[in-house]
Design goal:
CATH class: Mainly Alpha
Number of domains: 1
CATH topology: Arc Repressor Mutant, subunit A
Oligomer: single chain
Order of helices and strands: HHHHHH
CATH architecture: Orthogonal Bundle
Helix content: 55-70%
Number of strands: 0
Number of helices: 6
């Protein structure tokens, strides 16, 4: 099973799990809460898209595909996690901001 498929399976399992006991087990297993895990996965996915930027790509395109991020919240969360603004990640891909 591919890593991406495994990750999607884990994400789906975490979303489907509503009971407190399951949430506690997930947090113990992952070291973070299920909602935090999903947020990190979404931020990483958006960052991957930015770094793999295609010609004409814009920072505003990646976040909506991964989650209904408010762009200012996305920018703040991205900077806090990856120590660079989303525009800097796109620039690192060799594309203009």
């Amino acid at each position: 099973m591919s890593a991406e498929r495994t990750s999607r399976t884990l994400s789906a399992a975490l979303c489907a799990s509503a009971s407190r006991a399951s949430t506690e087990r997930s947090a113990k297993c992952l070291g973070i809460s299920p909602p935090r895990y999903l947020t990190l996965r979404r931020l990483a996915g958006a960052r991957y898209e930015l770094l793999a930027g295609k010609p004409g790509a814009m920072v505003t395109e990646a976040p909506p595909r991964w989650s209904p991020f408010d762009l200012s919240c996305f920018s703040e969360a991205h900077a806090a996690l990856f120590f660079e603004l989303p525009s800097q990640a796109l620039h690192a891909a060799g594309l203009p901001r």
